[in-house]
Amino acid sequence: MIAQILAVVIFVAMFVLIVLEVWERHVITLGCGLLTLVLVFGLGMHSMGAVWETLNLGSFFTSHFWYTAGQSAETSSGINWETIVFVAGMMIMVEGMARVGFFRWLCMRLAKMVKYKVVPLFVTFMVLSGILAMFIDSITVILFLAAVTIELSQLLKFNPVPMILAEVFCANLGGSATMCGDPPNIIIGTSLGYSFTDFLTNTGLIAGISLVVVVLYFYLVFHKELRASEAAAAGSNQNYPDPSEAITDKKGFIISTVIFLCAVALLVTHAQTGLTVSCIGVFISIVTLIAAGKDALKLIKQIDYKTLLFFIGLFMVVGGLEQTGILKVMANFIGDISNGNLMLMIAIILWVSAIASAFVDNIPFAATMIPIISSLSATQGVDLSILAWALAMGTDIGGSATPIGASANVVGIATAAKAGHMIKWGKYCKVMAPATIIVIVISMVMIYARYL
Amino acid sequence: MSEQLIISVSREYGSGGHEIAQKLAEYYKLPMFDHNLLDEVAASMNVSSKELAEFDEMRRNKFLYRSVMGMNSSPADNVARMQFDYIKKKAEAGESFVIVGRCSEIVLKDNPNLISIFILGDREAKIERVMRIYKLDARHAEERMIEKDRRRKSYHNSHCKVKWGDSRNYDLSINSSKLGVEETVESLKNYIDARIAHK
């Protein structure tokens, strides 16, 4: 009982401290993780076994960490090293791409392709944001896309805020389409043993249909403003930037593009090849570092190690809830209120995940929910994958509703603000909350129609 | 003036700090920045200063906004940072000026040509000054004073690690009620001249 109380107190304290930003979030999760090991497992449970299970260091030395001959569900609890190794690998690859000017070149190339016309640019950047976010973290996508949007808005004299908001939404939506698009999906995929193709054919389909609806939605919301901007820009005779100027190293650019395409191919086929995402992460990072040559050390230094440490601490805290049986209690509670009704169960997981993710970090939320849906599936006899898709869509999309829901939102808002365009809560939610509700409704209807 | 001189004036509401800053700016023939700083910042970005003014000298609400990789979604935080960056650039360019508030004593702390001053005052004297200038009765003047100081304090403390009004942040803290505005200005001139001569 003491262990359970301590686990809950540490978990709640972690959330509160993250919100209050008392310390950096990796310090908070690592501190809370350490407290979990000492207080929950040591003082409360007197169990060294729980400590080792949560640290999960043995997973590195198992063959299925690197290679799976066929589909096997990852059942171990505690620190999900597969997620951490994969995220680190992707970070190195993305840094390598950014270093040679890939993202800026891509944005500028597409802007040139649509002849710098505001409305086609708006639609193109939304789609680009969604597609890039399928493979690259949404923070990087928005960091580059929003910066180019600001640059073009100054050149073409349009208000960049509608475009940035639409890009942010599509980045979060694109992230939901694949296993590697958004951290909750990576954690769900590696924890429950789903492949890239599993995500693409399930959440990917929902995200694809939603993208069409969302493009229409944002166009309808902003079309007057966009048309007026287009008319104003038409008269000006500008010297547009040459996309090739964005490339800082031509040879490196080609190599980075090839590595990126290889990574995509490896991810798409990983269920067939048997290579795990951690194996792919290590491979692409090694290739990127070799290709970077003497800049390799620079790339390693630029790894966002704070995010990796944040993940490690987080998994330890969630491990505390798991080992003490708290998550089973929560799963039983959802099972009881839904009374075995799968429809209600899906609705609860989807909407609760979406609402929670709109206000708190979706990564800890998803990490907490995974053991809950596993337990729910086992006790209620429902298909785990259906619950997993509901959880993925809820956590990935819910974050778009408010300015604090997802990291991409913060980056988009801050980039606009740096150029003097302030986006307040009201302005943000007026546009983004309805779009979030639309996509969550689409997700619910599609999950019901396809799986029930 | 050949040497760079930056005078940062922080002040309690009703202490006459703004007037003192103005008189120092006139005496040393320096431009003065207070709320007008935002107009310059907005003009440099080609945006309306009205849009930014709404968030000027506001505290960042930790419950409503988040930070990611050093970027923040709070308009108040972004407006503050814009101003901090702007005055930093001016200082780095070797410009001399008087700056009122804007956490300038912290933002420009590393500049060797900065002289930071905090003007405080006795409660009764500050209330009397606010009553006289804004034609308010004592109760309303005091309420206004408390509210303004509360906002200044929370703005400063949400953007800086050190506390507003803590004498350790400033080169000089002076109570303007003891000598009045004119004589306080004279005392400050003596101090500033001594600092210039000491360089």
Average pLDDT confidence of chain B is 90
The number of helical runs of chain B is 8
Please bin the fraction of helical residues of chain A. over 70%
The value of Rg of chain A in angstroms is 22 Å
**Total strand count of chain A, please?**
0
Oligomer: heterodimer
Structure characterization notes:
The complex is a heterodimer of chains A (452) and B (199). Chain A has 21 helices and no strands. Chain A has helices at residues 2-20, 25-44, 48-55, 81-99, 102-113, 118-135, 138-156, 161-176, 183-192, 196-234, 250-268, 270-273, 277-292, 296-301, 305-323, 326-338, 342-359, 362-380, 384-398, 407-418, 425-451. Chain B has one domain (6-198): P-loop containing nucleotide triphosphate hydrolases (Rossmann fold). Chain B contains eight helices and seven strands, in the order E-H-E-H-H-E-E-H-E-H-E-H-H-E-H. In chain B, the strands form two sheets. In chain B, strands 2-5-1-6-7 form a five-stranded parallel β-sheet, covered by helices on one side. Chain B has a two-stranded antiparallel sheet with strand order 3-4. In chain B, strand 3 (67-68) and strand 4 (71-72) form a beta hairpin. Chain B is globular and about 50 Å long.
